[in-house]
Write a structure and sequence with these properties.
Elements (H helix, E strand, L loop, with lengths): L2 H14 L3 E5 L4 H13 L4 E6 L12 H4 L4 E5 L5 H7 L5 E4 L6 H6 L2 H20 L5 E5 L24 H19 L5 E6 L1 E3 L8 H10 L4 E4 L5 E2 L1 E3 H13 L2 H4 L3 E4 L5 E2 H12 L6 E4 L14 H7 L7 H14 L1 H5 L8 E3 L5 E3 L1
Parallel strand pairs: 1-2, 1-4, 2-3, 4-5, 5-6, 6-11, 7-10, 8-13
Antiparallel strand pairs: 9-12, 14-15
Bound molecules: nicotinamide-adenine-dinucleotide.
The site of nicotinamide-adenine-dinucleotide (NAD) has 31 residues, from helix 2, strand 2, helix 6 and strand 7.
Length: 359
């Protein structure tokens, strides 16, 4: 056998072998979509989920078929608890670390949990990863929020890091912590992914798009912050799952120690998103009302897609009109899922002038 043929065979058999993947935060929005993605794509893989089931986590986000499968294990517990982390990490070939407190408004209302979960939790995960000699890949899920408002168009991975809310600062702390471990312990096979704004099925109603959709479905007002012109790079959650998968499949030498933005390269303002939703549901634009700007808001986010395209061969497939259609259809059908979350849709924030506004 030619030596390069042999190498090829080794690589392909390695990719097809059974893997154990640990997904932290797998009962949340992106995490549960990612569990579904991995379960369907890799019939031989064993999935471990570690989730603390906070208000944002819901085991029912994971379909019953998966929960009952012998390929799946659900571990109730926190990434801040070394005892459970140190049991699960050594069993894993691949780790995708999603677990976090994730809501900007909640981080303004009370930020204590954010630093504990997002920073200390990541430190505990990284300490376990550092000790685990056979770990093949550790993917840290960071966020575009670490950048703050765009100072370049588009924003690439070297854009300054200027987080503007406690959530963003906690995630930035975690992002820099992972980066420091990648520098200090060069052997940790880690990389960082910074997704831009995700939307899709199973997203908590506290987040903008589900809140707008479910309010529109109930003829309630769509409350938009500030002038409505804040814009985001909206990416459909299935595209994000595919992007993470490309980072799992890529040659480790191409991705180790690297940072990747995951976005579409297009931004749409919050007001336009509201109008698109209303048009789709056939409700009048008069439902839109403006409320004072939320403190700590980013003005604009737009991702560069160049590095992900070049190294991961990833390009988002779903355009916004397709993705929002799928998302609206999901919320229309899944009324019992989201009705239970209605009371948690908004958080009271006290502004400087003493006014309390629900965000
Ligand atoms: N949703 C987005 O638009 C977006 C964009 C960029 C990055 N991200 C990042 O992606 C990740 C997932 O985001 P999401 O929107 O799915 O979040 P989410 O709030 O829907 O889910 C978070 C999950 O983490 C779990 N969790 C919280 N604290 C935990 C702890 N101490 N231990 C174990 N599990 C814990 C929760 O129970 C929940 O299941 C986060 O790291 C977030 O910062 C999200």
């Amino acid at each position: 056998m030619q030596s390069d043929e042999r190498i090829h065979k080794t690589i392909s058999s390695k990719q097809n072998t059974k893997k154990t993947i640990l997904i932290t935060g797998g009962a949340g929005f992106i995490g549960s979509n990612f569990v579904k993605y991995i379960y369907n794509k890799y019939p031989d893989w064993h999935i471990l989920v570690l989730d603390a089931l906070t208000y944002a986590g819901n085991p029912e986000n994971i379909p019953l078929e998966i929960r009952e499968s012998s390929r799946f294990e659900f571990w109730y517990g926190s990434v801040t608890q070394p005892a459970i982390v140190n049991k699960l990490v050594p069993r894993s070939d691949i780790i995708v670390h999603f677990a976090a407190e994730t809501h900007v408004a909640r981080s303004i209302y009370d930020n204590s949990k954010f630093f504990e979960t997002d920073v200390i939790g990541t430190q505990i995960m990284m300490n376990a990863a550092e000790e685990h000699q056979k770990l093949e890949r550790f993917i840290h899920i960071s966020t575009s929020e670490v950048y703050g408002t765009a100072v370049t168009d588009p924003m690439n991975e070297t854009h300054p890091l200027d987080p503007t809310s406690p959530y963003a600062a906690a995630k930035c702390g975690a992002d820099r912590l992972v980066y420091s471990y990648m520098q200090t312990y060069k052997y940790i096979p880690a990389l960082i992914i910074r997704p831009f704004n995700n939307y899709g099925p199973n997203q908590h109603l506290e987040k903008l798009i589900p809140r707008l959709i479910t309010n529109a479905l109930q003829d309630k007002n769509l409350r938009i912050y500030g002038d409505g012109l804040n814009s985001r790079d909206w990416i459909f959650v299935e595209d994000t799952c595919e992007a993470i998968d490309t980072a799992i499949q890529a040659d480790i030498e191409d991705v180790k120690g690297q940072i990747f933005n995951i976005g579409t390269g297009r931004d749409i303002s919050v007001e336009d998103v509201a109008k698109i939703i209303l048009k789709n549901i056939e409700k009048p634009e008069t439902l839109i009302i403006k409320i004072p700007e939320r403190p700590g808001e980013v003005r604009r986010h737009i991702s560069s897609t160049e590095k992900a395209e070049k190294i991961l061969n990833f390009k988002a497939k779903t355009n916004f009109s397709e993705g929002i259609q799928k998302t609206i259809d999901w919320y229309k059908i899944n009324n019992p899922w989201w009705k239970k979350l209605e009371w948690m849709k908004e958080v009271p924030i006290k502004l400087r002038d003493g006014q309390i506004v629900m965000y």
